[in-house]
Amino acid sequence: MRWIIGDIHGMLRPLEALIAAIPRFDAQPTYYFVGDYVNRGKESKGVIEFILSLPNARFIRGNHDDVLDQVLHGTAYADNASHGNRFLAMQWFLDHGLLETLQSYGATMDMIGQAIINRTPSSLQPIIDLFPPAHRQFIHSLPVFLEDDDLFLIHGKWPLKQKSGPAKAMKGFGANDSMRQEILWGRFTDAELTKSQSWPKRGFFGHTPVPTYKGYEGTYKPIVSSKMVLLDTAAALSPSGRLSAYCADNDQLIQADPQGRLAHPA
Length: 266
Fold this sequence. Notes:
The chain contains ten helices and eleven strands. By secondary structure, it is an alpha/beta fold.
């Protein structure tokens, strides 16, 4: 069966707990990930090392992964507030968990400071060299969606009025700048949670923490409807947060807390 796993954000312990627990309920699991493997938590390197070892796993890109790709390679899939400047992107996201990611790879404050001050490729290269080639390639090659006959995964948002999944909508012409932005950075509004979706199959999303929605404050379970499942249950944002694995084939939910303790089912 297919297990969709929410935003990890450098939280290795709950990820390991979920992957250890799922085979107790499913002898042949396939793992789908909605993006944001890095930043905020302290073990981004360990997370990427771990997921690269998983069999039967598929991945998409999150906005945090996209910013890291920009820092490492100079390009991003979607435009962001840095407008293509990898040093501005780095400085901006140090306050959003990138510092912990770089430190997990062994970067020192002096190395980071030199890159920010000098803003030259040579000052950034010592940090890039800390990332194993397989990790850099993983981040750089992440697609922005996955789609099966009955479901699709996008990190941020898919337009409610879009009558097809991403594969058909983007076929032949790719995505324009607005669509790229929405796929990685867009957030469903509170009102949109209760509106009908025109797309023909179930969509799974991350990016927006469930507790930020009105009426879901203090809630750390996915928001689930017939066509939409929101899976960012704030694993790295709160001691009460959870990392969620949701089975697309039988609607079973397994969660782990930030310490790696199985939280649901208890």
